[in-house]
Amino acid sequence: MDSRPENAVNGLKPTISVYSEYLSNRISSCFPAAASYLSKFSNFYRGNSSGTSKRRRRKTCLPLPFPSSSPESSMVVCEASKVVGVLEDIMECIFLNMHYIQKNLEYWQSKAQGSNAKKAYFMICERGPYAFFNGTVQLISDCVGEGSGVQHTYCLASSYISERINFLSSLRYHLATFLAQIYMKVDKAGEELVKDPEKSLSSLLVDMNDLFLKLEASIGHFHAVRQQSSSVDDSYSFPLIFEKLPEVNQEGSQWTDCEITDAINLIYQNMNRLNRYLASIVTIHRKPRRVTRYWIPYTCGIVGISICSLWLLRHSSLVGSSDIDNWIREAKESTVSFWNDHVEQPLISIRDDLFYTFRKRHKGAMEPEEVQLTADSLHRMLQAFTEQTKGDKAPPNATDQEMLEIVMMRYEKELMHPIQNLFGGELSRALLIQVQKLKLDIEEAMLELDQILRANEINFAILAALPAFFLSLLVIMLVRAWFKQDKKAEGRGRVARIQRRLLIVEVERKIMQLESYKDQGQEKDAQCMLGLALYYLDRLYCAVEGHARATGEWISLRQDIIDLAKPDLQTAHKLRITSRMERIYDCLLPLPIRQ
């Protein structure tokens, strides 16, 4: 068995990128000498990186179920830090691979729910130029020959998608079972570690090796299952074969440090083999890359850019034309003119309105002094008319309204003989008094209107600035959305909260299915449901940690997630926990509905 120094074990880290593993496998199969060189370089890197930095992990991960309530258990876990690191790397490896499988599985499931027309479009137009050419030729030949080309395309698309769904579902099933078995072993070994640490560590390493061998028996046959009618365009280049611990190590009751190191190295070798194998088979069944799915729009864009480039070249100075220079100059002048007319001048006008409004208030269209002069003149006219009509002096406390009533009564009497009284009576004088009253009413109305306009000058200035304000607000929102990238469950928006609540729904569903399979005695399916529940709990754990720390809820929420992951906790208690999580924690509450 390959022996490495202890610091190499601490520096080992699981392969995160399945693409790098797949590429390494391809190089190994095509160029053995290059593969040997890469292996030596990888070993050298592992041996030297541990001295300068710690093992890099994901930002966060679902904790292992080790006991942490007593000082003795904490001391034991510290002593077994190498084995704990191995277990954490195994869990992280399985979580990452399951997430990669889950993303591809969700893509194919969404395609399976589409209509036949969408499936046919995918088969012909979203699998690259080669598939487009072959699919078009096959469709035309089927339509000309048998007349059922469209139906044949529908059946081919359904078979193509179903095959990938079945394969990825089966692979996820075995990985989830493997994850559940590891978690249950660690949960069981946690109590034994406190009682007998030395024997429990060796027993735990043996159990991990046995679980890898069981996983090999479960998914190692995938390379030989490919049927002749399969739509997979590639074959699996190597079978999954794990290394096995020597019998002498398995029988010993107490291991030396060298034997523990060798066992850890063997587990890392098996984990790397698992990564390479999963990278190889999942890449064959993965969803098409974005450039493959959208190759038609990309091709049209490239053709359009090429045509535009040729057109610009014809009008550029490279061929002796000054059209582009003229267009640039005109565009610059238009931009400057637009800035001056629609941005700078309106802003200057708004600034003047804001700063000089109160200085201009004394320059109104009608002043109170002018209105008071008109009112005093009318009062004297009414008083003189009343004294002349009644023949005695008007009361000092008589109001304008009372004296105006006397004028109107005299005016009605004079209208009985209008022509006679116009020249010899008081009719003309009564008319002039009414004109003066009308003038007073108009001046008062103008004064009130002027006061209203003066009071709302600042409002009109703000109203003039609203378009620029809304435009700035829109730009800020777009920039914020661009930097925030609120798409996944880790975000802060409405969509992210919905994704986190859906993770809780998936956890509840898997817990209920786990209980159902236990009641039916289907132990293997129950382990798969436990593994899937652990996977969704890990995603929830990663998604809520930052938000819960910001609100001070993390300690309580973390404990609830750990309790949900416990295999022996009753289902009813777990469902109460999920219900409480949806109602209590701020990062899991739905945002209020916009009106």
Automatic annotation (TrEMBL):
InterPro entries in the record: NCA2-like (IPR013946)
Transmembrane segments: 295-313, 460-483
Assigned GO CC terms: mitochondrial outer membrane; protein-containing complex
UniProt keyword Mitochondrion, yes or no: yes
Primary residence: mitochondrion
Keywords: Coiled coil, Membrane, Mitochondrion, Transmembrane, Transmembrane helix
Tagged with keyword Zinc: no
Coiled-coil region(s): 428-455
Topology in the lipid bilayer: Multi-pass membrane protein
Pfam families: NCA2 (PF08637)
Subcellular location: Mitochondrion membrane
Gene Ontology biological process terms, A to Z: galactolipid biosynthetic process; hydrogen peroxide biosynthetic process; mitochondrion organization; response to water deprivation
Name of this chain's protein: Protein DGS1, mitochondrial
